[in-house]
From TrEMBL:
It comes from the Bacteria. PROSITE patterns: VOC. InterPro entries: Glyas_Bleomycin-R_OHBP_Dase (IPR029068), VOC_core (IPR037523). Transmembrane segments: none annotated. It holds the Pfam family Glyoxalase_4. CDD domains: VOC_like. SUPFAM superfamilies: Glyoxalase/Bleomycin resistance protein/Dihydroxybiphenyl dioxygenase. Residues 1-138 form the VOC domain. This is Glyoxalase-like domain-containing protein.
Length: 142
């Protein structure tokens, strides 16, 4: 996998949110031109993008703000059982501490932090713009 993409209204807020989770801003810039239109079939487009990378450098998150054309649908508040892309999950070291920090910055805990067997502590949160993110703290690492 090269990356997962998320479309947002406020790129700065989204970058700040994912920085708080622990991702690193790898780059930021504009995507425009005929080649982009050929890939997306959206015609004339202007997209501001940021590429974020996990601390291990293996996974990337592409965050996009479409300037042209405008976005046409919004499923940010969709429940977990909705069809299509819904969330991305991150492995974290201290789920309680991170959730506490994110809530102070406006994120909402969707349900509860739960433990799955002796393997993980997990939760879903809604961050900036209602983006659904899963957090997983691995227990008993070997």
């Amino acid at each position: 996998m090269n990356n997962v993409g998320i479309v947002v209204e406020n790129l700065d807020n989204a970058i700040s949110f994912f920085l708080e989770i622990g991702l690193i801003l790898e780059g930021r810039g504009m995507v425009e031109g005929e080649w982009a239109a050929q890939v997306t079939r959206l015609g004339n487009q202007s997209v501001e993008m940021a590429m974020m990378v996990t601390p291990d450098g293996h996974n990337r998150l592409e965050i996009s703000k479409f300037l042209i054309p405008e976005t046409i649908s919004d499923h940010r508040k969709a429940p977990v059982n909705s069809l299509g892309y819904l969330r991305v999950m991150f492995r974290v070291d201290n789920i309680d501490e991170l959730v506490s920090r994110l809530i102070k910055k406006g994120a909402e805990l969707v349900g509860e932090i739960v433990q799955y067997e002796d393997a993980y502590r997990l939760c879903y949160i809604r961050g900036t713009e209602g983006i659904l993110v899963g957090l997983a703290q691995q227990l008993n690492e070997k």
